[in-house]
Each structure stands twice: as structure tokens, then as C-alpha cells.
Amino acid sequence: MEIEKLLDELYSYSMHGIKLGLENIKTLCKEMGEPQKDYKVIHVAGTNGKGSTSTTIETILLEAGYRVGKYTSPHILKFNERIRANGQDITDEDIVKYYQLVKDIVAKTGLRPTFFEMTTAMMFKYFSDLKLDYVVLETGMGGRFDATNVCEADICVITNVGLDHIEYLGDTIYKIAKEKAGIIKNCPKVIVADSNPEFLKAISEEKAEIINVLEKYKDARMKLDFKKFVTRIEIGEESYDFSLFGDYQFKNFLTAYEVVTELGIDREIIKKACKKVVWQCRFERYFEKPLVILDGAHNEDGMRELCKIIEQGYRSDEVVIITSILKDKDVKHMLKLMRKISDNIIFTSLEDNPRGTTGEKILEQLEDKRGCLVENDMKKAYEIAKNLNKKIIVVCGSFYTLSKFKEEIDG
């Protein structure tokens, strides 16, 4: 089957919606011989920072010589990005192979799995066949009833909790944290990077030792280097140049650092590896002249962290933003944050996405419209941004916006 046709078929499982529960994935794994038990699992949940933390752990373990898999979502350009083994995306051929395997089981059992359940089952078996040492496993949503939670983790990570996906996970920090804490189960240790009392209360109700990196490394220091675009981190006498840039990456580094320290990884290996971490669309420098930054700030917390970085390096009259925001996000608050860091915002469209909308509808929700305009064509929006001759162009608001930018503007 041609890969595009196959992926269309795989995406069609999205029509089954989001189902929180483990029945389907348990059946799929049982039929495949329980592949999720064939490697050590580092299970990562949280509202923000999962991807950066997971990728940092992956990079350090690879540098240490281990065979490592990583499972993340969403992808930016290609489905293959979701399933990585030994630093490489899964090939189209292996997507075909493992999709067919899972599809046959679905036909045999009469299950009606979701897209995420299908993908998770494919991943578990693929990693098992490769005989990996470690798998860094990012939850899709929540934790307790997330399809990834059919495994038993050796170390659990819960980066933080914000009010996201409240229609599925609950409408308070405590309720959402309680769902995410469902990944802990029999895991002896959980590493967190959040000091919210409601969050900590929910985590403490599970039977695991909590290591809060904000407490443990409270004397650690961080400085952003706007010349080299690295996050310089000092822990005691040791210094680390972290290739992921931003205040929020400090917490992500500390979380990953604690995980690999628990696994006995040497500090010199950590120092080498942290310079090599690549995670696209997290303050990613896409062009140098003009400086174009792509950042997946897709909710209020993410936008706040992006604005914190920009404020340290640029005045608002030096910044132009290209953005589109999904309609199920807190659009008004995200716009208020953007307005503080930029005198010029160009709103574009994600109309082709069921959760998206037009630039006009987003602009309507902005109180102060001075210096703002709508251009639903991404190429034209970029040309307008360039012609404003600002120091920096920031593309943000949704991973779908970034994907569209990458597809239409050659890097």
C-alpha cells in the first residue's frame, strides 16, 4: 500500500474520537505477545515540556551507548517523527509493516481502536522487535487512561500541570494532576518540576518517592546566551550548555538531568549530549537573515514562556508575530500575552483544521488592534513580515501553524 494512502487510512481512526481507557490497547498488546514488557520504560506526562524533556533524555541515553526508542506526539511534518529508534524516525516501510500487523489484529478481534491506540500498538511492537534497552514514552493526554499506560515504568516523570484538555481530564489542577499521576502505578520514583500545592497533593497520594527538581536543584543557576542561543546552566561546580533555548528549558533540563542521574549516567556524557539536543519548533531558529523563530506555544502557559524569552532579548517594536490559534484554546489570554511583546501581529488561517479558524475571527478577540492585520495566505503573511524589517519574526500559536509554515516556506 502506498504510504500516503496508508496514512490516510490510519488517520481515519481519528473518527473514533478520543477514548480514555485501556481495554483496546490491552487486547492489542496481548495479541502481540505483550511487547511493552521487553524494555525499560521512562514514562513522561505533563501539560508542557514533555517533548523537550523526552528528547533530552533520549539524546543523553544515546550518547551513553544505549539502544533507545522515543514516542512523542503530535508530529510537525511527518507521521514518522512520532516513533524514533536509535536517533532515527521510523521508515515508511516499517510503518506499512506494523500498521498491517495491528490492522490484522483489529480485524480478528473486532475492536474499534482510536488513531492513538493504533499508533501506540505499532510503536510497542516495533520497539520490541528492535530489542531496545530503553523507551522514552510520552503520554498523549492525561495518564491514567492514556493508551501508553498499559506499560510498567521504571521511572515516571510528570513535568507540570496546567488547565488543558479540561473536557477530558477535569477542571482543576488537582483533578488533572490526579489523572496524570495515574502513570505512576508500581513505579518507585516520580520526578516532577512543579511547585503548585494542588499538583503536589495529587502526586503525593500515589505510592512513590517524589523528587521535585525545583526543590532539589534550587541553587542551580541559568542564563540565556542570545549570541549562541544556548541555555547556560550551572549545577554546583558543573556547567552545562543546553542547546534548547529558553527559561522554561531550564526546568526541562533539570528533569531530564535527574532521570539520567538516577540511571547512573556520567556527568561528562551529559555535558556532551546536552549540546546536541534537537527538538524542532521549540524556539527553533529557522532562518538567520532575517531571524525567524518557530515556537510551539499553543496554550497560555506555553505562550507565557515564549514571551518571557522574547522580552529579555527584544523590544516590542523589534518583533513581528505570525500566528494562528486553535479555537479550543484560551485565545484571549494568549493574544494579551502576544500584544505585550510585539507591536505587529499578522493573523493567518487554520481553516482546513477542524479545530482551526480564520485570522479574522482571531483578530476579533483582540482588544487593541493597532499594528495588526489578517493575511490567511501563509506565504503572503511571511512576505509582509519580512517587509516590516524587524529584528525578529516569531511564528507561534499552534503546531499546525508551524507545520504549515515549514511546508510552504522553504527552510
Protein described:
The chain is 40% helix and 18% strand. By secondary structure, it is of the alpha/beta class. Helix 4 crosses helix 5 (115-129) and helix 7 runs parallel beside helix 8 (197-204). The model has no long low-confidence stretch (mean pLDDT 92).
Poorly predicted spans: none
Number of helices: 16
Strand content: 15-25%
End-to-end Cα distance, whole Å, is: 30 Å
What is the global morphology?
A: globular
Across the major sheet, the strand order is: 4-3-2-5-1-6-7-8
Essential attributes:
17 strands; 411 residues; 16 helices; 8-stranded mixed β-sheet; 6-stranded mixed β-sheet; single chain; alpha/beta
TL;DR?
This protein has 411 residues and is an alpha/beta fold. The protein is built from 16 helices and 17 strands.
Sequence-ordered SSE layout with sheet pairings:
Elements: H1 3-11, H2 23-31, E1 40-45, H3 50-63, E2 68-71, E3 83-85, E4 88-89, H4 92-109, H5 115-129, E5 134-138, E6 155-158, H6 166-169, H7 173-180, E7 189-192, H8 197-204, E8 209-212, H9 213-216, E9 221-225, E10 230-235, E11 238-242, H10 247-262, H11 267-274, E12 284-287, E13 291-294, H12 300-313, E14 319-323, H13 331-341, E15 344-347, H14 359-363, E16 372-374, H15 378-387, E17 392-396, H16 399-408
Parallel strand pairs: 1-5, 1-6, 2-5, 6-7, 7-8, 13-17, 14-15, 14-17, 15-16
Antiparallel strand pairs: 2-3, 3-4, 9-10, 10-11, 12-13
Helix pairs in contact: 2-5, 3-10, 3-11, 4-5, 7-8, 12-13
